[in-house]
Design brief:
Layout (H helix, E strand, L loop, with lengths): L2 E4 L4 E4 L3 H10 L2 H22 L31 H36 L4 H15 L2 H14 L6 H11 L2 H14 L3 H8 L4 H12 L1 H24 L10 H10 L2 H4 L2 H29 L8 H19 L1
Antiparallel strand pairs: 1-2
Helix pairs in contact: 1-13, 2-3, 2-13, 3-4, 3-6, 3-7, 3-10, 3-13, 4-7, 6-10, 8-9, 10-11, 10-13, 11-13
């Protein structure tokens, strides 16, 4: 087994593992690399906001509606806030909740989808499939908004943890349904049946056979669920259902809507948070295109020049060996 080590931690990389092959395959796709760079830049921008802002994002003592200037890079809003400071602070909650929804939703999808597929046509499959169908029909974000509107009437606003729980519990059904179908197609393959015949446990079959063979879909499902988390989070705050004392890109859009920024030409108030949310979704979409190309070689864009160079190098080495 070809392995390489790096660092003082003696960390080993298995170059034949499905995870390594997936990451390498996605990285070879230019479109996925562009998406990764955009996402990395937004994450770094959001992390900077956790530790540093030019001004206190909650300070309201600045002159109102100032346009962008060297003192205020994105101007000030109608309440006297520095918009750039709010943009810096507001990124981490959106990205953090989005990634958390992606991880939790994908975990539930794997748990329910693979279990239903392995125990197909049994009572376990029927119960899990019925639950999945219910969550597929339920319009998750709409239900959360209705509950949020009801709680808002009794002076209770949704917090980050409540929104994370609500979005995670409503964003897993599609992935679970598709995974069940993929497992149904796999469970009659020779290597799965051989594993059962030699007494391999179900858990071992899941981790050694089923998950590695469905890794591209699981990775793609993570990004789709994360997009659902980010858009759901933004909608909840945009409609004023979350706590409005918290600073994030959703509350920035809410206050800009309340201040009629789009009618008064205060573009620096609503375009930056909207653009950042759009860039996050765009980066996820580009990475997903890369994953699709790895999962389906017919969609893959080959770098012909790169492979020609590799062939020339291989020929040169062979000639040296022959001589």
């Amino acid at each position: 087994m070809a392995q390489s080590r790096f660092g003082i931690f003696n960390f080993k990389i298995d170059k034949y593992s499905p995870v390594y092959n997936l990451i390498r395959g996605v990285w070879e796709q230019r479109v996925a690399r562009v998406g990764f760079y955009i996402l990395l830049a937004i994450i770094i921008f959001s992390l900077i906001g956790v530790f540093y802002t030019p001004y206190n994002p909650n300070y309201t003592g600045f002159p109102r509606d100032l346009p962008p200037s060297p003192q205020h890079l994105l101007g000030t809003d109608d309440y006297g806030h520095d918009v750039f400071s709010q943009l810096l602070v507001g990124g981490f909650p959106v990205i953090g909740v989005g990634f958390a929804v992606g991880l939790i939703g994908t975990f539930i999808s794997i748990l329910v989808g693979i279990t239903a597929g392995l125990y197909a046509e049994t009572m376990i499959d029927r119960v899990l499939s019925a639950i999945t169908q219910i969550f597929l029909i339920i319009p998750g974000i709409l239900i959360i908004e209705l509950i949020g509107a009801y709680l808002g009437a009794v002076q209770f606003k949704l917090g980050y943890l409540t929104i994370l729980f609500a979005l995670s519990s409503t964003g897993w059904a599609w992935g679970s349904r598709v995974l069940r179908s993929l497992v149904l197609a796999l469970r009659r393959r020779e290597y799965i049946l051989s594993s059962e015949l030699i007494g391999e446990s179900k858990l071992s079959t899941i981790f050694r056979q089923i998950i590695p063979n469905n890794l591209p879909f699981i990775a793609s499902n993570f990004f789709f669920t994360a997009i659902y988390g980010i858009t759901g989070f933004t909608f909840i705050y945009y409609f004023g259902l979350g706590s409005l004392t918290q600073v994030n890109w959703g509350t920035m859009l809410y206050w800009s809507l309340g201040g009629e920024a789009y009618l008064r030409g205060l573009w620096w108030w609503y375009i930056p948070p909207g653009l950042m949310i759009g860039l996050v979704a765009f980066s996820f979409a580009l990475i997903n295109i890369g994953i699709d190309r790895v999962a389906n070689p017919r969609l893959r864009v080959w770098d012909v020049k790169k492979y020609m160079k590799q062939l020339e190098k291989a020929k040169e080495k062979n000639e040296v060996v022959v001589k």
